## 1
Amino acid sequence: MTPALTLLMLLTALVSLHVGSTDIAVLEGLWQWLQGADSAAAIVIGDIRLPRTLLALTVGAALGMSGAALQGLLRNPLADPGLTGASQGAALGAASVFYFGLLPAAGAAAPALAGLIGAGVAMSLMLLLAGPSRQAMVIMAGLAISTLTGALLAAVLNFAPNPFALSELVFWLLGSVSERGLDHLVILLPALLIGGGLIWSQRRLLLGLSLGEQVAQSMGLSYTRGSRLIILGAALLVGASVAVAGAIGFVGLLVPHLVRPLVRNRPDRLLIPAALAGAILVCLADIVVRGMPPGRELKLGVLTSLIGAPLFIWLVWQERKKWI
Amino acid sequence: MDLISVDQLQLDTRLAGVSLSLASGELLGVIGPNGAGKSSLLECIAGLQPYSGRIELEGEELSRVETSKRAQRIAFLPQRCQSAWALKVVDVIALGRLPWGDEDAGLIEKAARHTGVIEWLDSRVDHLSGGEQARVWLARVLAGQPDIILADEPLASLDLHYQQRVLELLRKHTRELGSVILSIHDLNLAAHWCDRLVLLDAGRIHAVGTPQQVLTPEAIRQVYQVEAEVDFSGEQPLIRVLR
């Protein structure tokens, strides 16, 4: 399954490099960019399309994997990565940079860096509140911290210094991978590797948890330590992707559902395929965004939500049928 | 040496001064009213509860035994089991190999054959009936080839047929020199199948011994507050509640 999805992801990336307002020989442009030439093709590929494609892939992979991990940990197919409070924390961090001009030394990457810090703070507060947690407490604590950070974010929006700053922030929050550079990847890639590594190290716990905490613990797996590592990993993934690309909804929730049947519903085997499928879906959605008629751009996060929400309603319907 | 020896086990208000032992090849029944501490006792031995007192596994303090080693030797079958995901039966049984870090196909098939679930290996566990699932959960435990099985009311919600099948499987495990601690409500089944019984009442041991020693009308009156007639003279013990 993984090789097929990897191939599909590479194909999607190639298509993504081809799509744009100007017709350009992709491989030639890529080669020229690698050699440091400043031809038009090199600039379009290296400065615009490559960062955009790579960001779409990494953001999608981070969201897909964090969704698979959290659903496995909470044993709940409707668990969303936003549950940890990391998304809202990241949004608040980035918004603060827009307003107060924090971290000037970080340049264009400042909102992303602040977002990562915001996600980290929100996550730490959530873990502190949840205590030596049962899964229900993680959801409650995540909801409480999300609400708090959401309220603070609303306050920041409320006191926007000028309409321009407000619209800039709102558009950023809608979620997009356009107009970002490779320096954003420098933040996202380590977060993907570390967060993904933390989650991957706990895949046996995710499998054991299929039959509940007691069974997992009786099989020698440490629930308290393992669940913290998974939540930390997921927060890194979600926080970094929100910090770089804003809110791209429903990917973390839906991708695991699409992939689960392909891995016989095993939560341990779901992680990598969910990351690959997330990367493919976000990149495809971004290709659709770029293919829209010129004018005001439809934001990537808006598109994923428009597609994701009906699918989510369908999922809830399916779940409901199980209980009736 | 005893396989398991429990000495002065204490768990907040749930267990007080519980001492018992489990020998190789023994089927030990834990009986008592609801809330007597049966599940708590099993959870302590499975390493799921922080206890005070001593639990020894072949002379070694349980908390000092490496968790993976403990999990390889002691398997826990909880009271209620449900898979969060629509796993295939073969994958559920494979879970039993987690303490060993492998998915030995031969042992998974052997456990499935023992429990009679071999024909459902490729079926989804949520498509099976409650009784069929009970055998799959047991197959999961057997696939880990544990020395000791701790089964917490495995007969609850099973019909007569499956109650017998599960008890036969546990007995078979003890014949192959494994041991079982079984918490059970049905006193007739307990008397018939178990080598020894532990009668718990409000977290304390009321009596330990052979079924005949433990299940006296007086003990049943004191612990369950019912009058009962006990007859061990026939082929099968008979405990009948009078009022």
## 2
Amino acid sequence: MKEKTTFKNFVKKNSYYLYLIIALIIIFIAMAFISDSFFTVTNFISMMEQMSDYALMALGIMLCLCAGGVDLSTVGVANMTAAILATYLIRFAPDDCSTGILVISCIVVVILALIIGAVCGTFNGLLISKLGIPPMLATMSTNYLYTGLCMVITKGVSLSGINERFVEAFTVNIFGFLPIGIVVLILAAVFIWYELKKTSFGVKLCMVGTNPTATYFAGINNDWIKIKAHMISSILSAVAGVLMLARLSSSRADYGKAYSTQAILICILGGTAAIGGKFSIPGTILGVFIVQAITTGVSMTPGANSYMKNLVYAVLLLSVMILDYYRTNRKVKAK
Amino acid sequence: MNKIKKLLSLPESFCLLITIVLFIVIQLRSGQFFTSNNITDLLASYTVPGIMAMGSLIVFISGGLDISFPALCSLGGFITLTVFKDFTGSVIIPFLFCSLVCGLLGMFNGVIIAKFRFAPLIVTLATEALFWGILHGILRAREISVLPACFEKLQDSVIWVATNPETGISSQLPGVFLIFVGVVILSSLLLRKTVYGRKLFAVGGNPSAAENVGINVFWIRVSAYIISGITAGIACLCRSMIIGNYHPNALYGYEYNVISMVVLGGCSLSGGRGSVIGTIFGVILIQTMNLSLTLMNVPTYWQKFCTGVIMIIGISYSAYRTMKSSQTLSGVMNKTDDKVKEVK
């Protein structure tokens, strides 16, 4: 009897995740009927390779949404990082360089990416917190700036000719089945989980997102919280940029154009509140799986072109939002 | 003197100032800015973003945000051009039909946003994906290179032709430009001279106060999205007439361009503030810069970067002004107020 109630409570508490898991299972079953090659190891590996880029961006955007803003500059940061790193690699680590130089440049690439991410994020955060520009506008204009810089660096064409061994090093599958992107994603998720759940930053972030005036009078440094959220977001995007550079072995200003929309949709699908104050790391990860399953599923469905996936995302997102609206409203009324 | 000071403190005047500086810089570097050819080409290029910006402005004033309109009008335009493929009657009928389709699609946006009180950014992101999905996935839109015969007359009409005496190259201002002028006049009348316009400002400024006064906030919000849809639909047809064909992806990513024009023109994202004249300055500024880089011998890949720089300067300046005009503490309060409005 007692066990039953706890199970019921567990279901009630996590009903939103259960909806998502049910949606995921439905998509998987539908895919199994549509295509024979969906449930193969190669397909799952390629799905994992593709999803790490925008999954990282989605985690970052989740933080910004939670702080009451949004980050539209993620793709710009990723592409700019990729362009700068590509220029660096072409200049200092050509194909015939020694292994020592390659190792050093790999380390430099990672450090450079982190620095670029931190600088971009700080700039976004300063515009939002110190000047009080609405986050959407600020990140929209910095997205222009970063994408523009990427275009200037790549001169509007794609930069290729990156060291093959670098590409291999960053696209290796650990144990033969875990793409490096997924390892990075897991590390990032653990880091964010630690930051949000085990330090006061998570609580402060939600509070700033809900009521900045209250946090101001409670003595919380609103500006720093916002800057930190945007900094983490941009660093994650810069890391996604490194992964994109390695996966596509070239850099171009319009790679991943749709990622920022996709990442925002994932966050909302995962249960992060669009108006701030609520986040969910498992929800976001589930959202990434759902979106990737849809993308792969649509590309495998005979007779459907790749734009159909947009339709599926949109219908899914709107129906989840409306269902959730009625669910929470019922709860409020019951109280 | 006081009047001049007050005039200079308007966000619109800052935009105008940058525009004038840009004009002078272009003229000094190329010497070809103030030629009749160039001015004519520029005027023609303001048509499409200008019409779209008017719709966006109205949504912004009502406290909303619409980024789905390029997808929306591509869908509406495609449906219209397909339905009226062999139509030879008056050109007004396709325009009315397109307005109806786009208005309905805009109403879909508006009803979801106003009924459930979702964040407009998220809803329009989703409907944007939905509209692109319908356009490409279900309707399988292709390029339409021959426009219906009924458009021919309007398409070929020319207001004036400017010819460069040295090179002999002539550029013409298409008759479609008059539609832009009409839309501008209509929207400024709507915003300044009608009760509906005052209601829009009231809803954008303070929705709960507007509700208490007896304004139907729901319908005002929905109507703003309907207007945005209609103007976007008209802009899409105008674009196909100027270019001479319709391409489903031609307007992809155009929303941020238009939003930046409206915001640079002094419109507030949190609603209740904005003007038609400022928006026109914004359109002129961004569009001129985009088109004049080649005149100044700057490679076109600098275009996005320059837009970004101008946007950041313009937005920072107006944000700094609001910051300065309020004390530190009330500055925080102001920010909160803005946020509360955004939420609603």
